[in-house]
Amino acid sequence: MSYFKDIAPIQFEGPDSDNEFAYRHYDPNEVVMGKRMEDHLRLAVAYWHSLAYEGGDPFGGRTFERPWYGDDMAAARAKADAAFDLFGILNVPFFCFHDADVRPEGGSFAESRRNLEEICDVFAGKMQQTGTRLLWGTANMFSHRRWMAGAATNPDPEIFAYAAATVKACMDVTHQLGGENYVLWGGREGYESLLNTDLTREAEQAGAFLSKVVEYKHKIGFKGAILIEPKPQEPAKHQYDFDVGTIYGFLKRFGLENEVKLNIEQGHAILAGHSFEHELALAGSLGLLGSIDMNRNDYQSGWDTDQFPNNVPEVALAYYEVLRAGGFETGGTNFDARVRRQSLDPEDLVLAHVGAIDICARGLKAAAAMLEDGGLEKMRAERYAGWDSDASQAMLKSESLDEIAARVEETNLNPQPRSGRQERVENWVSRFV
C-alpha cells in the first residue's frame, strides 16, 4: 500500500464543495487571459521539503517518521515511489529537487554521482509513465560540512573543484530528464566575519564559477534557463546573492546579464527587507524574471520558516507582477514550503499543497482580473504622463544640466506637487481580492 494510503487524486469540485480533499479554485483547464490555468501557474512540488524534510527546526530534531528515511539506495527508491505518488495525487505537472534530496551520499564523489545517475534512471521511467516533468534541478552545496565556508566562494580551491564537479553532475542529470531550468542557490556563499574574508577574491571566484556553468550549458545543448536564487542571510551573516538588485550588479560585473535569470522566493524577499512583489517587479523590469518559489514567512520570526502560502492579497500582487512581465516561460511556481513539525500525517502533506494551490489559483485569477480591468495601469500611466511629451524626452535624453537650469529660470518654472493617490490605488486592488 502507498504511504498515502487510499487518498484519491485531487479533483476540482468548485468553490461550494465541502470536500477538503478537493480543489475549490484550481481548475487546470480554466482559461485565464487566453491560457489554461495549469499553463499559467506551472505548479511544482519541492522534493526536499515534501520528501526529505524530517521535521526539525533550529531547536529540535526529527519529528516525522517516514518509511523512506535512510541513507541507502533502497530508501532513495522508496522515497521516489512516495514522491511520484504525491505528484499524482496532487495532479501537478512538475517537481524540483536537489541532488542530496534524491540520493544517498557516497564514500567518494564518483559513488555519489553514480547514485544520482541511478535515481535519474528511476525518475526517467516514472516521468514517462506519469507525464510529470522536471521544472528544475539543483545541487545542495550547503548541508554537508565540506560546504561550511561556501562552495564557489570557498577559500579552499579543492572545495571549488568539488563544487564544479557536483554542479556538472547535476546539470547532466537535469538535462537528461528534460529539466526546464537549472538553479544555483548559494546557501553558504557569503561570510560570517569580514575579519577573515577577502571580498574581492570571493567575488572573482563566484563570477568565474558562474561563467563556467553558462559555458557548460551551451556545450551540452541545455535549452533551459540558468537561474540564481536570491537570499540575503541565514545561515551566513551576509550572502552575496542578497536580492534581485545585488545579483543584477553581479551579473553585469561579469557580463552574464543576458545568460542568467532569477528564481525568486517570497520568504527570501521578506528577509531582505522587501516585499515579494517588489523583487518580482524589479526582476521583470530588468528582464531577469525566471521562476518563483512560493511560500511565506511567519512575520513574528526572524528566520526563513518556509510555510505554505495562505494570503490571497499577497499572492495576487505577486502574480500581477508575473503577468505584467509576460508570465512564465521556462519557469513556474514551486512550493518551497514545508508542513509544520507537528503535522505528522500523510494527509497533512497532501492538504498543505491543496490549500496552497487553491490560494495560487485565487491569486492568479485576481491578478488577471486587475490586469484586464486596466485601472491600475491607467492610473500609473497618468502619474507619469508628463514624461511623454517631446520636450520632456528631450530634457531627459539630450539637454545638459546648464540648459535645463537656464530654461527653468527663463520660464519662471514653479511646479507644484501632485497627489500620489496611494489610497486610491490600494482601494482599487481591494475590489479584486
From TrEMBL:
Domain of life where this protein originates:
Bacteria
Question: EC number(s) for this protein?
Answer: 5.3.1.5
Q: Which reaction does it catalyse?
A: alpha-D-xylose = alpha-D-xylulofuranose
Q: Does the keyword Cytoplasm apply?
A: yes
- The positions annotated for binding Mg(2+) 1 are 229, 265, 293, 336
HAMAP family, alphabetically?
Xylose_isom_A
Q: Quaternary arrangement and interactors, per the entry?
A: Homotetramer.
Q: What is this protein called?
A: Xylose isomerase
> Which organism does this sequence originate in?
Paracoccus tibetensis
